Amino acid sequence: MKLAVVLFNLGGPDSPDAVEPFLANLFSDPAVLTMPGFVRKPLARFIARKRAPIAREIYAKIGGRSPIVEETLLQAEALEKAIPEHQTRAFIAMRCWKPFTHEAAAAVAAFQPDHIVLLPLYPQFSTTTTGSSLKEWKRVAALAGITAPTTTICCYPDLGGFIAALAANIEDSAAEPRADVSYRLLLSAHGLPKRVIARGDPYQAQVEQTAAALKARLSWDDVSICYQSKVGPLEWIGPATDAEIRRAGAEGKGVVIAPIAFVSEHSETLVELDIEYAKLARESGVPDYRRVPTVGVRAEFIAGLAQLVRQSIDSVKNGKGAGKTCPLTAARCPRTGTA
Ligand SMILES: C=CC1=C(C)c2cc3[nH]c(cc4nc(cc5[nH]c(cc1n2)c(C)c5CCC(=O)O)C(CCC(=O)O)=C4C)c(C)c3C=C
Ligand SMILES: [Fe+2]
Ligand SMILES: [Fe+2]
C-alpha cells in the first residue's frame, strides 16, 4: 500500500532574514501564547522584533541558519528505508518555518496515499509542540481535501528504540572517563512555563518517564533531570540546566549532558549546549564537560519509529484505541497498555 508518514517538528530559520518571521510564527501560535488573536498577533510581532537580534546572534554561531530541515530529511529517508513492506514516503511538516505544514499536506495529497501516519518528532507530548502541530495538520489536511485513513502517534517517551539509541549515545560519550573525575549525568529537556504544566500538559511527566527508562537501562547512580532554553518573563519548570551545571562545578563533578527532548541537532544543542553551557561549565569549575549527540538517524531510534508506525497502522485493524492517560483522547494511541 501507499503509506505516507508525516514527520512534525518546529522548524528553524533558513537565513538571518528568516529569524524574525520565524519567531513571529512561533509566538503567534495560540498553543504558545494563550490569548485572543487580536491581542496575540500584535504581541507576537512585538516579541519577535525584540527577540530577533538575540536569536540572530545565536544562529550566527552556526552559519546564520538552523540545520533542522537537513537533519529531519535524513531521518525521513532512513524511515522510508526502514518500512520496505509498503510504498513508504515520509513528508516533513514544520510548525514555524519551511517546509510548512500546509506544504506537507499538499505533497501528501499529490501522493494519494492509502494510509497516513502522523508522527511527531517530539518524544514527549506537549500542547505547545505536538498538540499544536496536530491541530494545524487537521486544519490544512481538510483544506487539501485529504480523506485517506489517518492514524496518530501521540508520543513515545519510553519507546525501546529511542531509549536504546539515547543510552548507546550516552555510553559512547562517557567512554574513557578521566580517572580523577567523578561524573554526573544531566538529562536536559526543553523547558516549559509552569502554568502550561498547571493547565494539565503531560510533558513534564513524560520527560520523567524518559529519564526513568534511561536510568533503568544505564548503570549510573548520579543522574539529574534539568530544563533548558527558557525564554520570556514567566516562571518555567526547573531545575534549570545552567543552575545544574553550576552546581556540578561547585561540587567538582564532571558533566555528561544528554538532550532528551530533541531528536536532531539545532540551535538549542549546537549553540546552547555546545557553546554557551560548555563555556559556563569551564567558568563554573566543571573538570570535564561532554555533550551527548541527539539520536538523529541512529539505527535503534529509526527502528523504534518504524515499529511505532506499524503499530499505528495495525491499531485500525485490531481496534485498539486510546487509553485513559493518552493526551490524544480523540485519536487512536499506539501505546496500548501504557497510555
Ligand atoms: C514560550 C516559548 C517557547 C516554548 C513554550 C517552547 C517549547 C518547546 N520548543 C521545543 C523545541 C524547539 N524550540 C526551538 C526554538 C525556539 N523555541 C522558542 C520558544 C519556546 N519553545 C524560541 C524563541 C525558539 C527560537 C530560538 C531562540 O530564539 O532561542 C526549536 C528550533 C531550534 C532551531 O531550529 O534552531 C526547537 C526544535 C520543545 C521540544 C518545546 C517544548 C516541549
Ligand atoms: Fe522551543
Ligand atoms: Fe497516546
UniProtKB/TrEMBL annotation:
Enzyme class: lyase
Coiled coil: none
Residues at which Fe(2+) binds: H190, E268
Source organism, top-level taxon: Bacteria
This protein's record includes keyword Lyase: yes
Gene3D superfamilies: 3.40.50.1400
Presence of keyword Transport: no
Pathway(s) of this molecule: Porphyrin-containing compound metabolism; protoheme biosynthesis; protoheme from protoporphyrin-IX: step 1/1
This enzyme's EC code(s): 4.98.1.1
Reactions accelerated catalytically: Fe-coproporphyrin III + 2 H(+) = coproporphyrin III + Fe(2+); heme b + 2 H(+) = protoporphyrin IX + Fe(2+)
Record's keyword terms, sorted: Cytoplasm, Heme biosynthesis, Iron, Lyase, Metal-binding, Porphyrin biosynthesis
InterPro entries: Ferrochelatase, Ferrochelatase_AS, Ferrochelatase_C, Ferrochelatase_N
Pfam families: Ferrochelatase
Subcellular location: Cytoplasm
Function: Catalyzes the ferrous insertion into protoporphyrin IX.
Family annotation (NCBIfam families): hemH
UniProt similarity note: Belongs to the ferrochelatase family.
Protein name per Swiss-Prot or TrEMBL: Ferrochelatase
Organism expressing this protein natively: Rhizomicrobium electricum
